[in-house]
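fyi for ur records
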Amino acid sequence: MKVATWNVNSVRKRTSNLVSWLQRAKPDVVVLQELKAQEPQFPKLEIEAAGYKVEMVGQKGFNGVALLSLHPVEITARALPDAVADEPARYIEGRIQTSKGPLTVGGIYLPNGNPIGTEKFTYKIAWMERLTRRAKALLAAEEMFVLGGDYNVIPTDIDVYSPAAFADDALCQPQSRAALRSLLNLGLTDAVRAFHLDDVQYTYWDYQAGAWSKDHGLRIDHLLLSPQAADRLSAVGIDKAERGKPEPSDHVPVWCELDLA
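which gave:
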């Protein structure tokens, strides 16, 4: 089973790119972030025509997450626990039955947190703590799960083209990295690093300053697997070529394959 994540940075602008990638890559499940659309604006017909069931949590102008699946899916959450009224659309979670038991897939659009020293950064860290509590609850079930999405955290200096350039960015702050390590230290596996221990692997290139042509990238899109899912991890990939397409997102798809035969 192929599970993927992609921050599409406006699903209406990227509909053609998204549908083309779905038809070519054929993920079983994909979580999308930064839809920048409410449900009436979401290109549901086009995606359903590609064979996918669509579930989403939208928001006018900003944020927004979706879960697309080739298989029947039971939506188990449309926000993290302890959500407040009118909370930004940043989390969706679904449960799929497989031949080897249930697989839960969570889609995450973690707050950016900039500028540091403001309420935005405080909110980012608090949101990560809530995500960690959700992961603990999922781990208690001792089942397969994947938490995928745009985490807006650069885990280590190897995951950024210039650590110095991002020294004052919320994505690189010690608190952000520590919060991500706390999540991983629960026993989760970073799928990309399971196959590429110390290689340079980027998932994001800014639109500004020729970042794409200079390969000035970041790795901020992650797939974190429960022990039961990690035991079945057979392949990972980053579809970097999507960044070179016309009208691209500044992020590219990241995927992993689980051996459920």
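The two ends are 9 Å apart (CA to CA). thats all i got for now
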